[in-house]
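User: I'll paste a sequence; please echo it back and then give the predicted structure.

Assistant: Echoing your sequence first, then the prediction.
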Amino acid sequence: MRSKGKIILWPVYFDATSTWTEGRRVPTALAMRAPRTEDIVKAAVAAGLKAELQPGAAHPSRPWVKSGYVLVDAKGPKARVIRLVAEKLPRG
């Protein structure tokens, strides 16, 4: 279900151990290993977005992984929002 002005951010989008085919949407230089939804919420808030954690949900291509997702209020293209959040993620 998609609401107008809301974007879903799955942890796999930012996972450095995942490939593009597996669902990563940012370059590995902006990705992190095993991102948690809490990390994504903090990064989204740091990027100036209103973020809401949705725990226990599974990405459609990985129904066995109940990672949850982050729902953000955003305007503009999803790819731009993903990159903006990725730039605020901690790297280690």
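The chain is about 25% helix and 15% strand. The domain at 6-88 is CATH 3.30.56.30 (Phenylalanyl-tRNA Synthetase; Chain B, domain 1).
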